[in-house]
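Deliverable D2.4 — example input (structure tokens):
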């Protein structure tokens, strides 16, 4: 039930999207599928985790809906270096998030 992954099982690259903070909602399954399709144009395999992330301390507490995009070393092509790929994936993921937020906010604005 509870496990700690070996260091070799940790992702080679991880992107975090503070989706709920900007969207005011959780991401939909269809939106995750869309992001996965776009990412698969750049990498062989991707893991996307949709979660409620809690930060808890002695004097404060907060929660936000967040996505984690994880790419294992085996899913990386031998082409561009990791820093270049990270930049491309950050740009792609931010463009996706911005479009999701704008589309759903636009839908809400037009509701009667």
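Example output (designed residues):
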């Amino acid at each position: 039930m509870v496990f700690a992954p070996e260091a070799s099982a940790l992702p080679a690259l991880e992107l975090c999207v503070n989706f709920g903070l900007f969207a005011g909602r959780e991401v939909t399954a269809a939106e995750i599928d869309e992001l996965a399709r776009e990412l698969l144009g750049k990498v062989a395999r991707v893991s996307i985790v949709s979660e409620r992330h809690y930060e808890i301390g002695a004097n404060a507490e907060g929660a936000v809906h967040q996505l984690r995009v994880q790419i294992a070393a085996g899913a990386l092509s031998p082409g561009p270096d990791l820093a270049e790929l990270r930049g491309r994936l950050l740009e792609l993921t931010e463009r996706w998030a911005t479009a999701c937020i704008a589309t759903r906010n636009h839908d809400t604005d037009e509701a009667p």
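The chain has a mean pLDDT of 88.
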